[in-house]
Amino acid sequence: MNKFDILIVGGGAAGFFTAINIAEKRPSLKIAILERGKDVLTKVKISGGGRCNVTHAEFIPKELSKKYPRGQKELLGPFHTFMTGDTIAWFEERGVELKIEEDGRMFPITDSSSTIVDCFLKEAHKHNIEVLSNHSVQDVGFDSAFAKARISNEDPFYVKTSKGDFICNHLVMTTGSNPKMWSLLQKLGHSITDAVPSLFTFNIKDEKIDGLMGLATNVTVKVLGTKQKSEGPLLITHWGMSGPAILKLSAWGARELADLKYQFEIQVNWLQFLTQEDALDELLELKLQHAKQSPFTYAQLELPKRLWHNLLIASGIQQATKWAELTKTQLQSLSRELTQSRFRVSGKSTFKEEFVTAGGVNLKEVNFKTFESKKVPNLYLAGEVLNIDAITGGFNFQNAWTGGYLIAQAIES
């Protein structure tokens, strides 16, 4: 039987950050990370397109917490203890400098996720943390028979893996969206919110966006028949729509869109905040100014030319028509396409390789001052094993860093 003071199940971002912080605060403790795969930190390696979006340049706890569709209320307190500025300092103290991009995302100045992976591996080695790959956890309990109940809160955990059994005083679960681990946590008394995809793009086939792949513009978009609404850059892809505006919708509407089986209609305002009446007034002014020109000659209202052309066609306007010849019906149709353009969504696609889910351990069952389970003493949970998820931009990693730090702080005390 392999005995450790701390066992951390899950060799990802939250697992390594937790282990390193515990080891720094309590160097005498014997710590191991159990990873089911042959490699550790795989999600870190691919995140941010291989650059690793470490965190986001939001330095006000309340504003940062608003980026979490699930976990907003629970993370507000923890963010007052450890958040963006602390993350930046933590990495800089270990030789990793971060930079802020225009949209607020933060990456290592090397633009390589290997910088973060190497930092974690170096720190783990430095602090004698055992990293055990190919150790798939099969069961967890409190005695050699793996009972699911304790006689005393001081009873150690027994952990059965594919490569042997372990015993520990403190158990940390950082296993992400792993149904098998959620099932084990259910056996220990936790309730689990079923997982549904959170960050995803919309599959759309529509002539209005044909040939526009790669085009990006600022919009307001809403899901018809719901209260879900978002604004920001929208990116047209070969399969439909992506970009921050769509990804925010997918995160905040994760459960509602799952209930709709990803078959729904969206409305896009290509002018972002202008109403149809505002747009019609602008078009009437353009009709006066450019009476002898074709509307196809120059894009208007600061729209990309290819998009402007497609919207003209969708409004029934022919290329030979001049501004002065546009009828009231055509102008109304164009103003509607500009501000209330409708698209049918038929399915979803994973956003890059960053598969994020909404679901996990019920947040009411966790003490967010310590990230310790309220059901099982000395059991701690961090990262996406909890029913916490965020919009894209480095926020899911910040949740992992904050949880890991508070767990280390709790075990130190």
Notable characteristics:
alpha+beta, FAD/NAD(P)-binding domain, elongated, 21 strands, single chain, 2 domains, seven-stranded mixed β-sheet, 13 helices, seven-stranded antiparallel β-sheet, 413 residues
What can you see in these coordinates?
The protein is elongated and about 85 Å long. It contains 13 helices and 21 strands. The chain folds into two domains: 2-197 and 357-412, FAD/NAD(P)-binding domain, CATH 3.50.50; 200-350, no CATH class. It has 413 residues and is an alpha+beta fold. A hairpin with a 4-residue loop joins strand 4 and strand 5 (105-108). The model has no long low-confidence stretch (mean pLDDT 95).
